[in-house]
Amino acid sequence: MTSLLEQAFDGEIFRQQGHQLIDRLADYLQQVLQRADMPIMPWREPAELRHEWQQLLADPLPASFTELTEKLLQQSIHLHHPRCCGHQVAPPAPITALAELFSALLNNSMAVYEVGPAGTAIEKAVLAWLAQRLGMPAASDGVLTSGGSLGNLSGLLAARQERGGGDPWQEGARAGLPLAVMVSEESHYSVVRALKIMGLGNQGLVKLPVDERLQVRPELLEPMLLAAQANGQHVIAIVANACSTSTGTYDPLPEIGAFARKNNLWFHVDAAHGGAACFSPKYRHLVAGLEKSDSLVIDFHKMMLCPALATAVVFRDGTVLNRIFSQKAGYLLPEQQQIPWQDIARNTIECTKKMLGLKIMMLLKTVGEGVFSEYITRTYDLARDFASLINGESDFKLAVEPQANIVCFRHQPDRVPDGQWGEYNARLRRQLVAHGRFYIVQTTVVGEIYLRLTLMNPFTNLNDLQELLAEIRRFGQLV
Ligand SMILES: Cc1ncc(COP(=O)(O)O)c(C=O)c1O
After folding, report:
1. Among candidates 243, 292, 301, which has minimal Cα distance to 268?
2. Which residues contact 422 (CB under 8 A, 6 or more apart)?
3. Who has the most CB within 10 Å: 4, 210, 217, 456?
């Protein structure tokens, strides 16, 4: 009888389950991409699902690999389905999923070079490639980290270190005036959360109002800065969106960058979603000025077809990496005269980390960089076409003309009184999602509820979206 350990590491079982899984996923992918008739978000009451898995775990009998995989497929949201237009989560290109599997088995943990030699070299190569494509200077450098939230925190920690006065990393940030950061009121919540983690509190947040297109208003920057300074705050940075989460709005980066330079503020751009526009000749203009940032964040798991997670944080001056997290740890990070670039844990919040660059390298080298240009152009084009469609329908209204692949709109039929449109659309969305033919989400724009579509799937087309409008009208009659 083989021991459980031998069974757990049996290469033949792995081969057989691996083949079975890849075959199943390949079939799944084909069916889903071809708009299989299935609930896209198979809605179940959360408590019911939780109970089901608890029961399964408590059951002393083993479950078969097939049983587990089928259950998981049935109960998951299907991002590759062209009628899935919800949040900003990429339907991963299959090669990137293979890279994840590969990386999971090797489990090279990346903290220092010796526990991830190829992974470390790949990370540096991917970062240098990205920085170059973004037009960042040769002196720039960066890290890959696990998500835009950690990415924004990393950028803002650099801001504090470089503009906070003294050496906040070593001495604490308590001496001197309270620190503050100027942030668009349309920023992702992770930016404010980062400031709170850093101890800046509500007082450290200077919220920047936006105009009717939801862009930061450059003419207000100077008075807001002066007001914060008069209030006794030491403003260290300004954060811009490229683009915002809710509506996909790009801030005027050149103006904000110029203001930051003039006032010696750190310029951080949250380009988690929209930074990849740099790959599309048609939409590159949206990120003009991004190359002037001091730090920026781009998520590969949003508009770069990778599975969660992989985020690039790029710093204009790469040497800042040595100052943000400067620490010694005899067992891992001994003191050295020349700080070794290859021991990445010196430069990130994380210690153990996945081989985040591998999926990007594999996608780039087996499919080609052009895939990003095609992806951005196609999904941003579709958003514009959908917006035109909506503008042509008297019972629908756009919240704002889309700049990216995010479209916010709502149904406003005459029979629903003005003032109840938000609630009506929220009810309608719940019905639509429960019915399962489409998955869409909602957001609040200037205090009003709107339906929100993120066109992440490159195979969604205008026919799908025409059907969506028909479905909305149909459900509208029922709610
Ligand atoms: C603009 C923006 N920044 C940051 C984030 C946070 O990224 P993550 O979910 O990878 O932590 C998001 C996520 O939606 C986002 O849209």
Report:
1. 292
2. 410, 448, 449, 450
3. 456
- Please tell me if the CB atom of residue 457 comes closer than 6 angstroms to any atom of ligand 1: no
User: What is the distance in A from the centroid of ligand 1 to the CA of 475?
Assistant: 31
Please provide the DSSP assignment of 369-421 as one string.
Answer: THHHHHHHHHHHHHHHHHHHHHHT-TTEEESS--SSSEEEEEE--TTSPTT-H
Q: What is residue 2's three-state secondary structure? A: coil
425 lines ligand 1 (CB under 6 A): no
Does residue 411 line the site of ligand 1, with CB under 6 A? Answer: no
- Measure the CA–CA gap between 179 and 172, rounded to whole angstroms: 12
Q: Contact at 8 Å (CB) between 375 and 305?
A: yes
Pairwise CA distance, residues 93 & 108, whole Å: 22
273 lines ligand 1 (CB under 6 A): yes
Ligand 1 atom with minimal separation from the 187 CA = 1
Q: What pLDDT is attached to residue 339?
A: 76
* Confidence band, pLDDT 50/70/90 cuts, at residue 94: very high
Is 248 touching ligand 1 by the criterion CB < 6 Å? no
pLDDT band with cut points at 50, 70 and 90 for residue 50: very high
- Write down the pLDDT at residue 83: 98
User: Measured in whole angstroms, how far is the alpha carbon of residue 85 from the centre of its chain?
Assistant: 15
Cα distance between residue 382 and residue 403, in whole Å: 11
pTM of the entire structure? 0.96
Q: 326 falls in which pLDDT band (50, 70, 90)?
A: confident
393-409 per-position pLDDT tens digit: 999 999 999 999 999 99
φ and ψ at residue 2, rounded to 5 degrees: -80, 145
Tokens for 221, please give them. 């920057």
Residue 175 reports pLDDT greater than 70: no
